[in-house]
Design a protein that fits this description.
Layout (H helix, E strand, L loop, with lengths): L6 H4 L3 E5 L8 H11 L5 E5 L5 E2 L2 E2 L13 E4 L3 H14 L3 E4 L9 H17 L2 E3 L5 E4 L4 E4 L7 E8 L2 H11 L6 E6 L8 H9 L6 E6 L5 H14 L2 E5 L4 H11 L6 H11 L2 E3 L2 H11 L9 E6 L2 H14 L2 E2 L4 H10 L10 E2 L6 H13 L5 E6 L7 H15 L5 E5 L6 H9 L3 E3 L2 H22 L14 H13 L7 H10 L8 E3 L2 H11 L3 E6 L12 E5 L2 H18 L7 E6 L7 E10 L3 E8 L4 H4 L2 E4 L5 H9 L18 H17 L3 E11 L4 E3 L2 E5 L23 E4 L5 E6 L5 H9 L3 H8 L8 H8 L6 E10 L2 E12 L5 E8 L8 H15 L4 E7 L3 H9 L3 E4 L6 E7 L1
Parallel strand pairs: 1-2, 1-5, 5-6, 6-7, 10-11, 10-12, 12-13, 13-14, 15-16, 15-17, 15-18, 18-19, 19-20, 35-36
Antiparallel strand pairs: 3-4, 8-9, 8-11, 21-24, 22-23, 22-24, 25-26, 25-28, 26-27, 28-29, 28-30, 31-32, 32-33, 33-34, 34-35, 36-38, 37-38
Helix pairs in contact: 3-4, 6-7, 7-9, 10-16, 11-16, 12-13, 13-14, 14-15, 17-18, 19-20, 22-23
Length: 895
């Protein structure tokens, strides 16, 4: 595999320090001192025209004076001089720089302009930069301390990415006494160029990092952030701490970073979608780091609590219940073991109270019994230092039994107090037993293991196949309606226009007739049939009920005429400047079995469209029973969104109410997800109420507002997560006239993908996977079908046989770490080979790669796979023998 484009940023052999000097109290002096005295085995070049030598080493006037090739430049000069240094980097072939200098977007309006100029210069000269306004980078595994911290972090397996240098400094100071080591520490600063997504992309495949911590103040590139998070979370635990969770904090974060921060519920939804764990406080981040940096994982959420103090056990139990952690019921065998060895008045339950006089042997026996219990997934030991107890002896006993049993279950400890338990905590830490200062923090740490397991399980879930009965949305018709509204200079759609958009995406809506007079209202009501609902029609009024602009249950002509006049009077009294176009008449759809729901979307300034679902009606804003998710959704995600609300329980059978049609509710969420993916002009969308009963769902009211998107040149650039790329769906004909469909793969194809691989001959499987394989594992299946379209593509070819879709071929590429090339793979069903399908799929795959901006496509082919080599040659690929394996041929084509 090609080297990652950040490889030399993190593992340079030569480093130039621009701004180096003799004064270690300055940034340039401190970094030069850290690099030259910190054990870095590569070459360090000081650059400063004011000095000829620094510590007997030659000091260069400029980067151009250095004769050797430089991998990384660390820049500590005034802000105004940085752009010139970046230009020098480009001229000297230095592709990586860390810019420590402040005075950019965090400082002023002029600083923001300067940062824009810096980004342009970096792009123009081909230089990747971390910063500006950053602390720098530490890579303890390579003994690199390119920060102006005098303390180097201890080496370990945990990586930290942070926008705050202060937080990095605190964690480095905290890590050594807690025996926590790091593979990398990256302070991004303003993240003008290299951001979270880029570093996550690197760390996801970094063999030196087992878990990743993030401290986030703002996100510049939502697509890159989400793509990097999702990639990293599939490979290793990722824990995120986000500042600015409340309005005052968000304002402070914006002032600090100069970047607008998105709302916290949307950020939560983004993390959940990526499968990462979120810490809410600085102390929780430490707790998560300590537990997830270990190799221990849980099989479930059942925790056994062992204590020598009842109060501590109660605190732990309360926190477990708050976090959804189960306090396990011990088996009868375990109870018998404990009964035989413990004093008669022990608690005889979980928490296992060993009593205040418990010594090392009592703790050791209880820990061993609970670790062996099939009803437990982890053990928490709480210790209170009574006068008769020996903390260090107890700690040693816990270490001894944990090592002796070698259980995969985690053992956590909480030795309460300070002075008497200090040495005991050191004993635990040295032996990789995670220790916490309070019962609550220890339980929180266990909950992170539980959440990580649940997240990984969710990533492996695959939705069922899409039904052939599902109608494709009329996205083009909806776009025409939107274009017409924008051409009129409007940004708010009328009720009728909004419902037309929903209908184009398959969402059933009540029939709406707009009228101007009371007489026309009567005609409309008689046409639709009583009872009816009447609503004001005014572009200035969005929430009609707030202005007395809604009347429901109008049962006859007299009530309709009276309501018309009443509604107009109400609105004019409360908003005299409102333009009243008349009213709309709709049939009443709310029955005794209907539930009122709300489905909506709002454009987040960072993550783009965010979907919401919850309890609807006029009380929606007061009840605030809603959940948020990022599109695109599939059916599994739609179900999860619904089940995160309290109103989900109302959809179940209740007293004399039959169960609501949940599948149709899910269908509406999927349709709204499609809508906001395909229509980037939609700023806000509200369907409230959405009535759901046992038969169907129907939208009674809808509101859509528009804005002109600031989208990039490629489709779906308004989305944080790349949705299904429908523009790549094509109908094809083989030379013999066979009709087939070539389209991107989707999660719902899991069953078809599995059947396709099962049907391949042993030879075809060997050529494709280069190993013995009967069928795809669940991990492989989810990996092959739940793809990130922003970093990979898989095109499947399918035909319809007996009314069912059958996959007959697949070609895929994955973007290489260099970001400019991709590696491909292709396989065709045995009975469909030699019919031109392989050539067709490869051409479509190369076109998709070209559209993504890639320059090169390449792959590995077994030397005895002559049909594939012939195909490659016919498509213009170069073919050569691998220098590392004579049984492999390397094929390559510039696109």
């Amino acid at each position: 595999m090609k080297l990652h484009r950040l490889e030399k940023m993190f593992n340079p052999r030569t480093i130039a320090v621009v701004g180096a000097n003799r004064d270690a109290s300055t940034a340039g002096g401190c970094i030069y001192d850290n690099l030259t005295r910190g054990g870095f085995t590569g070459k360090v070049f000081p650059v400063n025209p004011k000095h000829r030598k620094i510590d007997e080493a030659q000091c260069y006037a400029s980067l151009a004076d250095i004769e050797a090739k430089v991998d990384l430049a660390v820049i500590a000069v005034p802000a105004r001089a940085v752009i010139g240094v970046i230009a020098d980097c480009g001229k000297c072939g230095i592709g990586n720089a860390i810019v420590l200098s402040s005075g950019f977007s965090e400082a002023s309006k002029d600083g923001r302009q300067l940062e824009t100029m810096l980004k342009d210069a970096a792009l123009r000269h081909g230089v990747q930069i971390i910063g500006p306004n950053c602390l720098g980078v530490q890579r303890p595994v390579s003994q690199i301390n390119a920060t102006f911290l005098q303390t180097a972090a201890p080496e370990g397996r945990l990586a930290l990415i942070s926008q705050s240098g202060a937080l990095c400094a605190a964690i480095v100071d905290w890590s050594k006494p807690h025996d926590l080591g790091f593979s990398s520490i990256v302070a991004l600063g303003n993240a003008a160029d290299v951001g979270f997504g880029d570093v996550l992309d690197y760390l996801a495949s970094d063999p030196k990092s087992d878990a990743i911590l993030l401290y986030v103040e703002s996100v510049n590139d939502a697509r890159g952030f989400m793509s990097g998070l999702r990639l990293a979370a599939r490979a290793k635990p990722v824990i995120v701490l986000k500042s600015g969770r409340r309005s005052t904090g968000r304002k402070a974060a914006s002032t600090h970073t100069g970047v607008l921060v998105g709302s916290d519920d949307v950020f939560d939804a983004a993390l959940e979608r990526a499968g990462v764990v979120r810490a809410r406080t600085f102390s929780q981040l430490f707790a998560a780091a300590e537990i997830l940096s270990s190799s221990k994982r849980v099989g479930g959420d059942r925790l056994a609590i062992i204590t020598n103090g009842g109060g501590a056990g109660v605190l732990a139990t309360d926190r477990a219940e708050e976090l959804g952690v189960s306090v396990s019921a011990l088996t009868q065998d375990t109870m018998a073991i404990l009964d035989k060895a413990l004093p008669p008045n022990w608690s005889r339950a979980n928490p296992v109270d060993l009593l205040g006089d418990a010594g090392p042997e009592r703790f050791k026996l209880a820990v061993g019994a609970c670790l062996a219990d099939e009803n437990t997934d982890g053990v928490l030991v709480l210790f209170t230092p009574y006068a008769v107890s020996d903390p260090n002896a107890v700690a040693s006993a816990i270490v001894d039994i944990a090592q002796k049993q070698s259980s995969p279950k985690p053992v956590l400890a909480c030795f309460m107090g300070e002075e008497r338990v200090l040495e005991a905590r050191r004993t635990l830490s040295r032996n990789r037993i995670s220790d916490f200062t309070s019962p609550e923090r220890a339980v929180e740490a266990f909950s992170y293991l539980v959440r990580y397991k649940r997240n990984q399980e969710l990533l492996l879930q695959t939705p069922g196949p899409i039904s052939h009965d599902e109608k494709e949305p009329d996205a083009e018709g909806a776009r025409m309606i939107i274009d017409s509204v924008l051409a009129q200079g409007r940004s708010i759609l009328s009720d009728i226009e909004s419902k037309a958009i929903l209908s184009a995406f398959g969402i059933a809506c009540t029939q709406t007739i707009e009228v101007e007079t009371a007489a026309e209202a009567l005609v409309a009501a008689e046409t639709l049939g009583f009872p009816v609902t009447m609503k004001i029609s005014s572009p200035q009024i969005l929430h009609k009920s707030d202005f007395g602009g809604v009347k429901v249950g109008l049962a006859n002509a007299v009530q309709v005429r009276s309501a018309f006049e009443t509604i107009k009077a109400n609105v004019l009294a409360r908003k005299p400047d409102a333009e009243i176009r008349g009213v709309t008449i709709e049939p009443m759809v709310s029955g005794s079995g209907s539930r009122e729901l709300i489905v909506g979307s709002k454009r987040d300034p960072v993550f783009g469209p965010a979907l919401s679902f919850g309890a609807g009606g006029t009380m929606a804003e007061i009840l605030r029973d809603n959940a948020v998710a990022l599109p695109p959704l599939n059916r599994i995600l739609a179900k999860r969104l619904i089940n995160r609300t309290s109103v989900a329980r109302l959809l179940d059978p209740f007293r004399d109410l039959p169960e609501a049609n949940k599948t149709r509710v899910e269908d509406v969420l999927l349709s709204v997800s499609d809508l906001v993916c395909e229509l980037p002009h939609v700023d806000e969308l509200d369907i409230n109420p959405l009535f759901a009963d046992q038969h169907d769902v129907i939208a009674a009211d809808a509101r859509i507002t528009l804005r002109r998107p600031q989208s990039g040149p490629r489709p779906y650039s308004h989305m944080a997560i790349h949705p299904y790329p429908k523009h790549l769906v094509k109908t094809r004909y083989l030379a013999d006239g066979t009709l087939l469909t070539v389209r991107p793969i989707r999660p719902e194809d899991a069953q078809r993908e599995q059947e396709f691989v099962r049907g391949l001959s042993p030879t075809a499987k060997h050529y494709r996977f280069m190993l013995s394989l009967k069928e795809l594992t669940p991990q492989m299946l989810s990996r092959f079908t739940q793809i990130d379209y922003s970093r990979e593509m898989a095109l499947v070819a399918s035909v319809e046989i007996d009314g069912a879709e059958r996959q007959i071929g697949v070609a895929r590429y994955v973007i290489n770490p260099d970001g400019e090339s991709c590696e491909f793979a292709i396989v065709i069903s045995d009975d469909w080979q030699n019919r031109g399908l392989g050539s067709m799929l490869m051409k479509d795959l190369m076109e998709a790669a070209r559209g993504h901006g890639l320059r090169m496509i390449e792959g590995e082919v077994l030397a005895d796979n002559q049909p594939m080599l012939s195909l490659m040659e016919s498509l213009g690929f170069s073919v050569r023998t691998s220098p590392e394996d004579l049984h492999l041929k390397l094929v390559q084509h510039r696109i």
